[in-house]
Design brief:
Blueprint (H helix, E strand, L loop, with lengths): L2 H30 L4 H23 L5 H30 L25 E4 L4 E4 L2 H9 L5 H6 L6 E3 L7 E2 L10
Antiparallel strand pairs: 1-2, 1-3, 3-4
């Protein structure tokens, strides 16, 4: 093999390693954008294992140029599949409020929110408030400072509401007057 061919092969391997480094940045991007952790760490793990497997394959001369390119292609395809799957899960998750934690109370009447029944959720810029009925949510929106919880959380208007856990979020403006129930 001539020096030019060897240099070309090394250049291709270096380019492949840079592409794989983007896989690690991809996992970091997923972490920052709050993708599900299972998928984020799976992308990171696939890239890490792939990186070391290819490195060992090159050093032991088990993998040659075609094997390295095929392994990189496989790693990229698996990472892309995991990303698309995570994106779909995140999109679905973002359309629905999380269920209330055990012991969550309605800010209007003080009763515990039953996670099995239909409850309403209000999101302001910082917090989620769970209500046991639409009427209680409407009462809170009309006069939020009448209720103790609005002073404790620094309530600043309505960003989104969820009237039914099956329907998901309804995006609204920032002022309570814009909410029509």
């Amino acid at each position: 093999m001539s020096q030019e061919e060897w240099d070309f092969i090394n250049l291709l391997i270096i380019i492949a390693r840079f592409i794989q480094v983007f896989g690690f940045f991809f996992a970091i991007f997923m972490l920052i954008r709050e993708f599900p952790l299972l998928y984020t760490f799976s992308v990171f793990l696939v890239n890490l294992i792939g990186f070391f497997a290819i490195l060992v394959g090159i050093l032991t001369k088990y993998l040659f140029l075609l094997g390295v390119i095929l392994a990189d292609l496989l790693i990229i395809l698996i990472s892309l599949f995991l990303f698309l799957r995570a994106y779909r899960v995140k999109k679905i998750k973002d359309n629905f409020p999380p269920p209330p934690k055990l012991g969550t109370r309605c800010p209007v009447c003080g009763s515990y929110i039953n996670t099995q029944s239909d409850y309403c959720v209000l999101m302001d810029s910082k917090s989620l408030l769970y209500f046991d009925s639409k009427e209680h949510m409407k009462a809170f929106i009309e006069e939020p400072y009448k209720y103790r919880v609005s002073r404790e959380i620094n309530y600043d208007g309505v960003k989104k509401i969820c009237l039914s856990k099956e329907e998901g979020w309804i995006k609204l403006g920032q002022k309570p007057q814009e909410v029509i129930l």
